[in-house]
Amino acid sequence: MGRREDNRRLRRARVLMAARALIEEGGIEGLSMRKLASGSGLAVNTIYGLFGGSREAILEALIEDGIESMHAALDQQSFDDPLHFARSIITRGIEHFLASEALYRAAFLAELQSPQVRPWGMGVVLRRGGEAIQNLVGAGLLRDDVDLRLLAREIMSRFRALAHHWARGTIDGSELRVRGLYSLHICLLAIATDLGRPRLLEGLRQAERELQALAASG
Questions:
Q1: pLDDT (tens digit per residue) in 62-71
Q2: pTM for this model (two decimals)
Q3: Beta strands in the chain (DSSP E)
Q4: How distant, in Å, are the alpha carbons of 12, 154, 187 from that of 150?
Q5: Which of 55, 75, 162, 176 has an alpha carbon 20 to 30 Å from 103's alpha carbon atom?
Q6: How many whole angstroms separate alpha carbon 66 and alpha carbon 155?
Q7: Distance CA 62, CA 85 (A)
């Protein structure tokens, strides 16, 4: 049983590696079962068995693996400041997107263009975002008298909307980062304690200055 599962993981990794190369070369339109079979050295039927035969499912699996890797990298670092950790989820996420720009543009555009594509990464990101918010509550920076799960979902939804703008090319990576941080601080300020409010306002004003500088340079 263990060997069978190891073989399945190996075949899955081969397909995902081939899929990444195809998307980076030609976008989601370049992803086909025939090309995947050629690139991975596996039969089309094998790929169907691993992923259900949908290129959207393969894209989703590829992105989910990337998001898991990104958050595993966060786990390797020490964050003494819970606010720094919350900001890092945004900034490290964007660094991850920009490092594989073609792949993540394709993923966000697929969400917009294909109703059957569910938003990828929601479980991982909401879990990590919820953890960050709980840390802020524990540090006395946020109140706990609201539904913190809904707050995490709202922050994620706002960021996803910005990422869709980035994927369409209406904002660049710098604006995505700054506007993501601006939105994060706005949401957190809604339930800030007296202790947390000055720090969150400081972060908001820094984001405002960066946004003004981007607007002036544009």
A1: 877 777 777 7
A2: 0.81
A3: none
A4: 34, 6, 11
A5: 75
A6: 20
A7: 25
